[in-house]
Design a protein that fits this description.
globular; 4-stranded mixed sheet; 135 residues; 9 strands
């Protein structure tokens, strides 16, 4: 026992975006995410969270950039590596629907020992994996 609580989880991940509304629209319309919160914090700031599907997994906090350093990080929060992993129970269905909605895949689907996967880019160029894990 380390002294920490036994039941902890990563609940929210901040994603730096150029504009709240364009990011909400892209994630909701193209990926089927659900807008879970949009609270005005004053001074142009908002608390905007989205979740995939029915709230499974971590929430994304859409954080509109303020200042040059944050604007420079948009689309490259991880130095060009895959940043987020969107798990699905039906890769073929979601891949086809995402293509239909204009999501840019950077590679053809491939089968790995851990599941079926393909890398796609969000509206800012952040890289994601769409993955159906092997069960």
């Amino acid at each position: 026992m380390t002294g920490f609580a036994e039941r902890r989880s990563i609940a929210t991940v901040a994603l730096v975006v150029a504009n709240y509304d364009e990011a909400i629209s892209w994630y909701v319309d193209r990926l089927g995410f659900v807008l879970t919160e949009d609270v005005d914090l004053g001074g142009g700031k908002r608390w905007v969270t989205i979740t995939p599907g029915k709230g499974q997994g971590a929430r994304l906090l859409l954080a509109e950039a303020s200042g040059d350093a944050q604007r420079d990080a948009i689309g490259n929060q991880t130095g060009g590596r895959v940043f987020l992993f969107l798990e699905t129970d039906d890769f073929a269905r979601d891949h086809a629907l995402m293509l239909e909605k204009g999501v840019e895949f950077r590679e053809a689907p491939r089968h790995e020992t851990y599941g079926t996967v393909a890398v796609f880019a969000d509206l800012y160029g952040n890289l994601w994996d769409l993955i159906e894990p092997k069960r």
